[in-house]
Amino acid sequence: MKTFITAKAKLKEVEMFGVLKQAKDGFVYLDISNDIINGLFSILNSDDKEKPPYNLKSFNTVGAHISVIGTDEYNDNGIGEIEELGEEINFNPNKFYQVNPESWDEMKKVYFLSVKSPDIEKIRKKYGLSKKMNGHEFHITFAVEKND
Question: In 1-148, where do the E strands start and end?
């Protein structure tokens, strides 16, 4: 179940960017500054939350990022070279959410910021994929709350 997180300050139309990269397993992502994660995490101001465990395989050890093309999508669709690798891609912050992830058993809640990026959508469409990854909004995971 997804829940909207209210914040004291409203997000302005701020254009941010990351660099398009690819992991060895085919995963394509937008590499973003860890400062974004640090800033978002500071909003929570809670002892029971942690920054995401970016060293886990599920995060492909890529650090702070926005997923663009999943490993399975990349491999199952026979996508070859991604021409845009190394380019700066823009995105805009959208809304804060928290979710109880059904597929991540050790986590009680995951906190993320959804983002909008027509540039990411164009890249996905160029390689024969739907505009959205698994039908979900693009997002930045910035905190987790582990099960007790």
Answer: 2-4, 16-22, 28-31, 65-69, 88-99, 107-116, 138-146
**Conformation bin of residue 77: beta by default, left when phi > 0, alpha when psi is -120 to 50:** alpha
Residue 135, sorted as left (phi over 0), alpha (psi -120 to 50) or beta, turns out to be left
Q: Which residue has the tokens 């027509």?
A: 118
Position 55: which residue type?
N
The residue count of the chain comes to 148
Token pair for 93: 């912050």
- Domain segments of the chain as ranges: 16-146
pTM above 0.85, yes or no: no
pLDDT tens digit sequence for 84-127: 999 999 999 999 888 887 777 788 888 989 999 999 999 999 99
Nearest to 59 by CA among 144, 137, 146, 148: 144
Backbone φ, ψ for residue 42 (5° rounding)? -65, -20
